[in-house]
Write a structure and sequence with these properties.
The protein is of the alpha/beta class. The chain has three domains: 244 residues, FAD/NAD(P)-binding domain; 157 residues, FAD/NAD(P)-binding domain (3-Layer(bba) Sandwich), CATH 3.50.50.100; 79 residues, Recoverin, domain 1, CATH 1.10.238. Helices cover 38% and strands 19% of the residues. It contains 21 helices and 24 strands. The strands form seven sheets. A seven-stranded mixed β-sheet has the order 7-6-5-2-1-8-20. It has a five-stranded parallel β-sheet with strand order 10-17-11-12-13. It starts with a helix and ends in a 7-residue tail after the last helix. The relative contact order is 0.14. The structure holds flavin-adenine dinucleotide. Flavin-adenine dinucleotide (FAD) binds next to helix 4, strand 2, helix 5, strand 5 and helix 18.
């Protein structure tokens, strides 16, 4: 079993147990994986039996769109052989995106962080086929997706159109870069989203240095060419700036010593701080460190235009428009919905939204057999207040309209399961459970629906959208595969939380995100981490934690070995600056 799987399983296993397990999960990660026991054997046997029962039944067609974090973790965790799986993606590989910034300077080679999809699905027990193509239309009426093959070599023929039928559709197409329609960005800026982007950036940095070495250039032109501008102070922009700074000061400085006085790295951020989603201590540390490193941080800077040689910004403090000459711009300001997903949203009536909405079971709202996960979708979390009357009625078995606090004991688990915001609220209020919340507010007195509403009135304020991260996408892929694995078993033995809106129980528990922490590599062998329980860890030891976790999370032993050997090679020989 790969370390990646181990990690994901561990992540699912340890949540909800005492802090010790969380620590164990984080601290025992090493190149090989985790030493965390996880008993899934009973469940595996159950679905294997169910699959055997169904051998004679026609296999259900599952179409998976996308081979990123969400699609790949779904494919890796799907075990039930009673499906016929078709995978469609313009990329015939999975890419480990958190290491993309390390590819831009050659710390890690591109091939070390990719794994062919055919290799991933080839080891599976279910029937799977891969098509290197992009889906350009989803036809819900006829249950088919329209695809167009990707042509990399024109002499092999033009692109082909074809359709694929589905019984279940899994949309995991990720998102596109958001340029906010800023003029010139698409034409002149570099993005950092795909492997090719990282390779292009690496080549451009070298190009800039080689060009700046030519004797005919003026110093002003040299300064322009060696000005590297990063737009966006989120985790990707910050990590890329740190990696670039490392490359320049550790490796290129030895090869181009006379150019160093002209080199400048500027990070433009529209708000007042970088790494806004992190704890304040991390933000402060990062800003101070970048200051010491000489990375020029410009806050309150809105980019208005990018031309071939200049980037125009509007400074919030002065209200002035400023033109900054540059040699390379890297745009890293967030993501937007892909056109094909927008078109699908129109088709199913989700017209007033920016992102495709699913329910908590990852099912696209309004479509029974279509699921969406990862960056292309968001969960439309149900508010507890929408179901408050139904919850009360469920607890009020005698129908008196008045209940004692203890009468809620029976529905407690279902409520906590169904509305994650309740658990967050209870944690914030330092309460043991929902009954304690009611007791604190009303003692042992009987409650009517109005008092019940009042006690829970602030719970929904804790609802927030899940972040667009690999962690969320991978957990969603695993969760959905688990649901597909148990589809037949669950039909026989329904389980899961009550559906307060209707009768009976839902077949599966809703998806629940387990946050395992977040890293922000800052260069100079220093990393900041925000771990569960709001622990903050910054420095050299955190960098080693980062190395071990990222090694363990690799998708295969080949990529794990390649990444670790790339790191070792870099320690011993430095980074290579050949322009290939
Ligand atoms: P993706 O991984 O983007 O995959 C989308 C897939 O859909 C791709 O295979 C694509 O080829 C395919 N596709 C696209 N269009 C079509 C189409 N029309 N038809 C069919 N298939 C299509 N997250 C973290 O948690 N930690 C990190 O440290 C981190 N670092 C990051 C660093 C960088 C540089 C970047 C860019 C992202 C980082 N992320 C990180 C975010 C993380 O990569 C994304 O949240 C994650 O990739 C989302 O997974 P996904 O499967 O939804 O989409």
């Amino acid at each position: 079993m790969s370390g990646y799987r181990f990690y994901e399983r561990a992540s699912r296993a340890y949540y909800g147990r005492p802090h010790f397990y969380k620590l164990l999960a984080v601290c025992t990660v090493s190149g090989g994986g985790l030493v965390v026991a996880y008993g899934e054997a009973a469940r595996s046997t159950a679905f294997a039996e169910a699959a055997n029962d169904n051998n004679s039944i026609k296999k259900k067609k599952v179409v998976v769109l996308g081979t990123g974090w969400a699609g790949t973790s779904f494919l890796k965790s799907l075990k039930n052989p009673s499906y016929e799986v078709q995978v469609v993606s313009p990329r015939n590989y999975f890419a480990f995106t958190p290491l993309l910034p390390s590819v831009t300077n050659g710390t890690v080679e591109a091939r070390s962080i990719v794994e062919p999809v055919r290799k991933i699905v080839g080891k599976k027990k279910y029937d799977a086929e891969f098509k290197e193509a992009e889906c350009y239309k989803i036809d819900t009426q006829n249950k088919k997706v329209h695809c167009r093959s990707i042509t990399h070599q024109s002499h092999l023929g033009g692109s082909e159109d074809f359709t694929v039928d589905y019984d279940y559709l899994v949309i995991a197409m990720g998102a596109r870069v958001n340029t906010f329609n800023t003029p010139g960005v698409a034409e002149h800026a570099h993005f950092l989203k795909e492997i090719e982007d990282a390779q292009r950036i690496r080549r451009t940095v070298i190009d800039c240095f080689e060009r700046a070495s030519l004797p005919s250039l003026s110093n002003e032109e040299r300064k322009r060419i060696l000005h590297f501008v990063v737009v966006g102070g989120g985790p990707t922009g910050v990590e890329f700036s740190a990696e670039l700074h490392e490359f320049v000061t550790h490796d290129l400085a030895k090869l181009y010593p006379t150019l160093m006085e002209h080199v400048k790295i500027t990070l433009l951020e529209a708000t007042d701080h970088i790494l806004n989603m992190f704890d304040k201590r991390i933000t402060e540390f990062a800003e101070k460190k970048f200051g010491r490193d000489g990375i020029n941080l410009k806050f309150g800077s809105m980019v208005t235009k990018v031309t071939e040689k200049d980037i125009s910004i509007k400074e919030r403090s002065s209200g002035q428009n400023v033109n900054i000459p540059y040699g390379m711009v890297v745009w890293s300001t967030g993501i937007a919905t892909r056109p094909v997903v927008m078109d699908f949203m129109k088709q199913i009536g989700q017209t007033n939204r920016r992102v495709l909405a699913t329910d908590e079971w990852l099912r696209v709202e309004g479509c029974d057999d279509i699921y969406a996960l990862g960056d292309c979708a968001t969960i439309n979390q149900r508010k507890i207040m929408e179901d408050i009357a139904a919850i009360f009625v469920k607890a009020d078995k005698k129908g008196t309209g008045r209940l004692k606090v203890d009468d809620f004991e029976e529905v407690i688990n279902d409520i906590v399961e169904r509305y994650p915001q309740l658990e967050i609220y209870l944690k914030k209020q330092q309460l043991k459970d929902f009954v304690q919340l009611l007791k604190n507010k009303h003692g042992d007195k009987e409650l009517d629906i109005e008092k019940f509403k009042a006690a829970l009135s602030e719970v929904d304020s804790q609802m927030k959208n899940l972040p667009a991260t690999a962690q969320v996408a991978a957990q969603q892929g695993n969760y959905l595969a688990d649901c597909f694995n148990r589809m037949e078993v669950c039909e026989k033995y329904p389980e899961g939380p009550l559906r307060f809106r209707g009768t009976g129980r839902h077949r599966f528990r809703p998806f629940r995100y387990r946050h395992l922490g977040q890293f922000a590599p800052l260069g100079g062998e220093q990393t900041a981490a925000q771990l569960p329980g709001d622990w903050v860890s910054i420095g050299y030891s955190t960098q080693w934690l980062w190395y071990s976790i990222y090694a363990s999370k690799q998708v295969s032993w080949r990529t794990r070995t390649s990444v670790v050997s790339d790191w070792l090679r870099r320690f011993v020989f430095g980074r290579d600056s050949s322009r290939i």
